[in-house]
């Protein structure tokens, strides 16, 4: 993977601006301590030179005099303490900056995620983008800032040490160029290759996460055990992880071998220069202090060079990962940001005009030219076989998707021009895959209109009574304060009980439009009848759309709409549709035969 440094600049600038906005004080302090650490080694080298020369001067005088060395000893002590303290400060500041960035960037990602439409998350083409963005974003930004600042500190060390050493032995500049540039190029190509490898693994990484979820999730572990799928899933997981391990091992070995070659050659070159400097000392061209400083400084210079290369290429590699975060944050919702408002009170009159919609990547439309009018307060049932487009249609009405063609009007206002917040406040939706929130029973209901109900227990209890779930909630160990779910609590509900909570959550919102997608799918006949009566009472005065396979549920509708292959093929009352002996009548007859078969 060939990437020029120029291509990385936008990611680098963005990350630095983000770090500055997260905490300008921490970033400044981190850069300051790193700068100090960069100049201390040169100061220590000069101090060592002065100390040696002062000691030799005192010895040559024939008397032992410590005072000439006192200033150098004092400076050496101060610089050594300063180096240690700045190292500790760097660690502290890096940790603090990481925490600030973690809060900042994660909040930004979640905030942006909330603006994206449902289609984004259902499109497999965007799953890899989402996966890469979620891969430790704060860590990549923190590592970039830390590596960049530390690399700058090492660069200062190199320049300051080189400024001293070049006066002792000018050939050191040639050695530096000959070994550093090829090593820098190699480490960068290795970093780019590692990133390209990780990027190519994104889908496979999602597969490994999926296998782990199947083997550890309470919703799937039972079936996995019964089907004895664990060995198969573990083997597939192990196969992918083994592939990753073998690929990484090749990179690690290549990196080790080339780095080892750099260490050997650079050490040999620096040692040869050291011998040359020692010879010049013996000939009187240089002092013993020069020899002492050259030996210590060149050793430190080689280590600093290696660290600089690793830190600089590490920072560049992190910008590649940062570009993944930017790619996600630049993803835009397919929904146009509407600003129109609805009048009060809302009538929830719905009109669809030749609406068409195709899922991304699908060859056939899910909704193909549907026109439908729902009068204010009318209850309409959508029926049809699986895949007929019923759920897709109600999601279009709730503007979880945007139609490709045609338009949908809510009280005469095109949904595309309507504020989403305005629309969703007028819609209550019980999804077929309803939420089972890890929260108290009270909160599970209050989430239906959390801004108004989260701290209004009396209103929550009133909603529960209206939805006929108050008795069930009161029977829980802590009543409305019972923590539901198995992740953080120890009390789970049956599928039917969870569905009743979901229905209560929908009724918590004073919405003009009520959408019920398979509202009785998890209920037995008795519970279905009770909920059926609740629907009759609670749907009064609201426009209601019911999606159901159960004819006992759809019979409460004023009108039944039959769908097939994304189109409306019939519409009328239960009696009218039976009299036509069409699709609806066939579905109803099949349903009755199934019920009679079950009864026998």
Structural summary, described in words:
The protein has 3 domains: 13-329, ABC transporter type 1, transmembrane domain (ABC transporter transmembrane region fold); 348-426 and 511-600, P-loop containing nucleotide triphosphate hydrolases (Rossmann fold, 3-Layer(aba) Sandwich), CATH 3.40.50.300; 436-510, Rossmann fold, CATH 3.40.50.300. The protein contains 22 helices and 10 strands. The chain has helices at 5-22, 24-60, 70-115, 118-122, 124-134, 137-168, 171-200, 202-216, 221-226, 230-282, 288-329, 390-397, 420-425, 441-446, 450-453, 457-466, 470-474, 495-507, 525-538, 551-554, 574-580, 583-599, and strands spanning 350-357, 367-374, 379-383, 405-410, 413-414, 427-430, 513-517, 543-547, 559-564, 567-572. A 6-stranded mixed beta sheet has the order 6-7-8-3-9-10, with helices on both faces. Strands 2-1-4-5 form a 4-stranded antiparallel beta sheet, with helices on one face. Helix 1 (5-22) crosses helix 11, helix 8 (202-216) crosses helix 10 and helix 21 crosses helix 22 (583-599). The radius of gyration is 35 Å and the shape is elongated. The two termini are 68 Å apart.
Spans of at least 5 consecutive residues whose pLDDT stays below 50 are none
Radius of gyration, taken over Cα atoms and rounded to an integer in Å: 35 Å
Helical/strand content category: alpha/beta
Question: In the CATH hierarchy, what is the class of the largest domain?
Answer: Mainly Alpha
Q: Please state how the strands of the largest beta sheet are arranged side by side.
A: 6-7-8-3-9-10
| Amino- and carboxy-terminal Cα gap | 68 Å
Query: What is the CATH H-level superfamily of the largest domain?
Result: ABC transporter type 1, transmembrane domain
Mean pLDDT, to the nearest integer, reads 84
Biggest sheet, open or closed, and with what strands and sense? 6 strands, mixed
By DSSP, the count of extended strands is 10
What is the CATH architecture term of the largest domain? Up-down Bundle
Dominant shape: elongated
Portion of residues in helices? Answer: 55-70%
Instruction: Could you tell me the CATH topology label of the largest domain.
Output: ABC transporter transmembrane region fold
